[in-house]
Amino acid sequence: MDRSSKPETNSEVSKIAAVREAWLAAVQASDVHRLAKLWTDDVVIVHGNGRCVCGREAVKTDFQEGLRRFAIDQKVSSSEVLIREPWAFEISEVESVLTPLQGGPERRVHSRTVVVLARQSDASWKVCRVLGLLA
C-alpha cells in the first residue's frame, strides 16, 4: 500500500514495482547478469538464516551458487512502499520455492522482506539492501 497520494510518488512506486518485476524475471530465468544490473555496487543482502553477503561481486557469486543448485520460483506481495529521497523502502511477503536441480524434495520458504532502494543519478532505482526475515 502506498501511503502517499502525490502523483510523482505514485510514478516512483511504479518504477520500484518495475525493479521488483525485473528481479523476479531474472531469478526465474536464472540470469545473474540481469540481476546484477539491479544492484548498487555496495549491495548487502541478509538472508533469512542471518547469512550476510556484501558487495556486487560477492552477491553475484552467491546467486550463481544458489542458481546452480536450485530452480527458484518467487512470488512477492508488496505490502508497503515508503519513499524518503534518496531512499525507497519496500516491505513485502516473499514466497520462494527452491527445487534442487540434482533431485530431492523442494523447499518452500516464506519471508517478510525489507528492500532498500537507492535513487541513482539518472533518477532510476537500484537495490542496495535486502533484509529477509523468515516467517
Any overview of this molecule?
The chain has 135 residues and is an alpha+beta fold. The chain has a single domain, classed as Nuclear Transport Factor 2, Chain: A (Roll), CATH 3.10.450.50. Helix content is 30%, strand content 47%. It has a six-stranded mixed sheet. The longest helix has 22 residues. The radius of gyration is 15 Å and the shape is globular. The two termini are 20 Å apart. The N terminus is likely disordered.
Brief rundown of the structure:
Helix content is 30%, strand content 47%. It contains 3 helices and 6 strands. The protein has helices at residues 7-28, 32-36, 56-69; strands at residues 39-46, 52-54, 70-84, 87-100, 107-119, 125-134.
Unreliable stretches covering 5 or more consecutive residues? 1-5
Beta-strand share of residues:
over 45%
Mean of residue pLDDT? Answer: 92
**Biggest beta sheet summary:** 6 strands, mixed
What is the CATH fold-level name? Nuclear Transport Factor 2, Chain: A
Q: What's the end-to-end separation, in Å?
A: 20 Å
Relative helix content: 25-40%
Count of extended strands:
6
Q: How many helices in DSSP terms?
A: 3
* CATH architecture type: Roll
Order of helices and strands: HHEEHEEEE
How is the largest sheet built, in terms of strand order? 2-1-6-5-4-3
Rg, nearest Å: 15 Å
What is the top-level CATH class? Alpha Beta
What is the 3D shape?
A: globular
Count of the domains: 1
Tell me the structural class: alpha+beta
